Amino acid sequence: MVGVGYVGIVTGACLADLGHDVTCLDTDRRKIDQLRGGVIPIFEPGLPGLVHHNTTAGRLRFDYDYSEAIPGAELVMLAVGTPTSDRGKADLSSILPAVDDVARLMDPGTTIVVKSTVPVGTTAALAIQVAEARPDVAFEIASNPEFLRQGSAVEDFMKPARIVVGSRTAQAAATVRELYQPMIDGGTPAIFCNLETAELIKYASNAFLAVKLSFVNEMADVCEEAGADINYLTEALGLDPRIGKHFLNAGPGFGGSCLPKDTQALLQTTQLVGAPSRVVAAAIDVNANRPSRMVNKIAMATGGSVRGKRIAVLGLTFKANTDDLRQSPALAIIRWLIGHEAQVRVFDPAGMDKAAALLDRVEFAADAYSCVTDADAVAILTEWPEFAALDLERVRGLVAEPMIIDLRNLYDPATMKRAGFTYHSIGR
Ligand code: UDX
Description:
Layout (H helix, E strand, L loop, with lengths): L5 H12 L4 E4 L3 H8 L10 H10 L3 E4 L2 H4 L5 E4 L16 H11 L5 E4 L7 H12 L6 E4 L9 H6 L4 E5 L2 H10 L1 H5 L4 E4 L1 H32 L3 H9 L20 H14 L5 H11 L1 H12 L8 E5 L14 H11 L3 E5 L4 H5 L5 E3 L3 H5 L4 E4 L4 H4 L3 H7 L4 E4 L6 H6 L3 E3 L4
Parallel strand pairs: 1-2, 3-4, 4-5, 6-7, 8-9, 8-11, 9-10, 11-12, 12-13
Antiparallel strand pairs: 5-6
Bound molecules: uridine-5'-diphosphate-xylopyranose.
């Protein structure tokens, strides 16, 4: 497994747990040393136990010496990052040298599996790169995108909704299939297709989710103007099996390391191939405007201006059950509040350490209750379960003004009213 980022560690540990013999490689020695010492650099429920169990059992190792692990490997999986570079394009500057290393060291017959999210055509181009580096050596190549959600990545790996394998030969498909045989035997559908289709499936999946969310968020705006209620609306939508009930929660916009980056990259691809997607462009555009709409909501709730107001912010991460702040709408909202001279105090169950390096002029509270103490308004920005289960009476006793702006619709407006709060939420 090349790359001990999010996907590499989770996938490596899970494959080891299925009984495979896995070495996770990275050029970053510090990360490898950490992992060898049992420190997992990411927050992911279930992962520390899985890593510990499989390293102890001798099926999972961490190494920076590629020349130890690549020769003799039947299968080399690439899970290096492909962040957004200029104008939304996927940045391939990590995967290209990684492939050179693999090509240099691999034994004949190795199957290279691209797990990283890469634009259509990349895996075929990587195959040419390998063939040019080792013209004498036969190898196989496949595309095997991941669909892991942060916060439930281990479960998503072990109980996937589908497995996607792109290849050019039956042999490459069969080798990758073997990896997932227990899931396939357990009924998980597997799609075997060509390289390009597999690459595109990943982007189309994330873009479809993004479209769903931007649509719902727009409908929430319409509900606000029209006197309708987004929660009932999405509940009814979700009961139509053609729509499905998941991914219909209105909120401050989608964030994270995948949806924003993959929608941008897919848009680029569609433009490049001469079939530009207007739907994906619109989903990105709607999402880009989301934080300012949220900010407007907070400003209106606090009487038109946040200047000098003490705002308690609950939630920093882009969603619950992660410590990831990448593209978190909460950060955009907080920066705006600070820019408009609000006094901001924040609390998040997992994102505080990372936020300290990213946010100036905010006060970090030890828990939700000290965060809301003396606040003129409380803004809920992330749907952490503990924010949905606040002791409302206690909060009421601590705040200066009983005002809650809930951008995740965690509460029922009637309950809030009874508890004595002025309550603003999304699309209701
Ligand atoms: C996503 C995809 O779900 C996963 O399949 C892919 O492999 C990686 O990208 P992730 O980034 O972990 O996973 O987050 P996800 O749970 O999909 O949420 C993305 C964003 O959408 C978050 O900001 C979340 O708060 C938001 N969201 C999600 C909503 O606003 N409402 C919802 O109903 C669901």
